[in-house]
Specification:
It is a single chain. By secondary structure, the chain is mainly alpha-helical. The protein has two domains: 58 residues; 67 residues, no CATH class. It is 64% helix and 0% strand. The longest helix has 24 residues. The radius of gyration is 20 Å and the shape is flat.
């Protein structure tokens, strides 16, 4: 059996789904009529786990004897690392600076992953995403985010 990129994705789905189910069981599933806080992670984790197993099996059967493909093609390494860096910076900034600077950094760094992006579009994109986040979560749902938190 040769290892294909789809095998790696299937293994990732199985791992994340399994972790979600394992952690979700500690919250209590409840019943189908009165779902507990662990129902959503368990159901979504189970679905992701099943999709991962199906992807592994489908890839194994479809690509029997075929040459393996690269996990990350050479031209996709820079965008992959840029997106990972954007997520890492967002995770580090959201508690220290607040939601809005974290989102601005996430979008700004993630923008660098696309070579075709024009710099004059970036501020418009950042403002649009921030407006949607504020409109839905802060104003619409009333979730108490720290929009700006300058405590270093």
């Amino acid at each position: 059996m040769t290892f294909h990129a789809d095998h790696a994705v299937g293994i990732l789905f199985v791992g994340i789904g399994g972790i979600a189910v394992y952690l979700g069981l500690d919250y209590g599933f409840g019943s189908l009529s009165e779902m507990g806080p662990g129902a959503l992670p368990v159901l979504l984790g189970t679905t992701l786990f099943i999709f991962g197993v199906a992807l592994i099996l489908q890839t194994t059967m479809a690509n029997a004897g075929a040459a393996a493909t690269a996990l990350i093609p050479r031209g996709e390494i820079r965008p992959f690392l840029t997106i990972l860096a954007a997520l890492l910076v967002f995770g580090l900034l959201i508690d220290r600076l607040g939601l809005l600077p974290g989102v601005a950094a996430l979008v700004g760094i993630g923008w660098l992953a696309d070579k075709r992006g024009r710099a004059r579009e970036l501020p418009i994109l950042v403002l649009a995403i921030v407006a949607v986040i504020l409109g839905i979560f802060h104003i619409g749902l009333g979730i108490p985010f720290h929009l700006f938190d300058w405590s270093f």
